[in-house]
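Project standup — Tuesday

K.O.: blocked on the structure for the chain from last sprint. Re-posting the sequence here as requested.
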Amino acid sequence: MSQVILGPIYENKQTKKLIHHIPKGSIAFLWHEDIDSVSASGLIEQGVKAIVNASTSMTGRYEHSNIEMLLSAGIHVFDVVCMMDKQKIFEGEEALIIQDKLYVKSFDGYEEIAAVASYDSQVVNQLKGLAKASYSYRFDDFITNTLDYAQKEKATFTLKKHLPEVFDRLEKQKVLIVARGGGYEKDLAYAKKLLNQADLIVIAVDGAADGLRKLGYQPDFIIGDMDSVSEESLQSGAALVCHSYEDGYSPGSTRLSSLGLSYQTLSLVGTSEDMAIQASYWSNADHIYLVGCRFGMRDYLEKGRPGMASSVLARIQAGDCLTDLKGIHKLEKNHLGTIVNRMKQLEDVLSEWIKKAADKKDWIRKKGAFHHE
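H.V.: unblocked you, prediction finished:
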């Protein structure tokens, strides 16, 4: 008997925008090739019951565990195989998935929208195998692209850029830059125990501002395209710096202007994370800590970037002024494991000591009895 999935369906071409408003228990209709870890975590947190993707949720181009993460959370994942004549964006209509078909309720009953195919552990493992088989080719292509662009972009890292005056406050200060890379909230929670917030100037990259505020940090700066950060965070008092591209286009400026918020623009090569690192370096920050910033090949393939020249150059430039805290939360588990092992060792030592003490007491007792006789 086929499983029936019923619920309201919501759609957005940008998954990060959909996550902001989709209600719990809904079906998410995506256009997202190779669902990334941040989107997967966000969809899980929002409590969606199923995903229907008009693109391919896992292509097998590179290995990732994001579909497994969704399936483990009890979220059904489907890819569209054949789309019917879809007329409009879904905004909460009642939808039904049954027998590999997506139906949406209309005036005349349920209308078939698409034929779909579901993911399971077998499909995921096959795609992981495909990714492993093509890894050497993918890696070679990625490195070649990175080196080609590094050759073109290296000159831009040798000349100090004119920065808005708001960055003057970074001079000789410790700076924490937070982006929404996979596991960033766990890393941030752990880093909070190690870093003195009073001594930090906190820079949030786009939507990381919301995660920071949820954990009790108040961002001093918000940098980026401003497309995945809530209005509440934008209005929290942080200095707003819109990423402006080489052609002068600044996608965040339109949104901030419409909200009546003041902001600065800054044009530097690379991602908004790279821009935050470069701005901190050129502002003579004493030290730069990173949480959630992307760097590995998979991180960038998730973002649809075939190379990472600007990130390599920005990190080389910052050098020993930079500490990347990516994955630091994993130390907590290891630390607890060490404590448990040491407690077990202590328990064994105490047990042995008690046994020896008992044996000695028994010997003394017997010796006393013998002497008395």
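K.O.: great, moving the ticket to review. Residues 330-372 form the longest helix (43 residues). The chain has two domains: 5-129, 162-324.
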